[in-house]
Amino acid sequence: MYYIIVYDVNERRIRKVHNILKKYLYWRQRSVFEGELSNSQFRQLMRKLDGLVNEAEDSVIIYEVQYKGLVKIHYLGDSQQEDDFVI
Question: For the whole model, what pTM was predicted?
Answer without folding.
Answer: 0.81
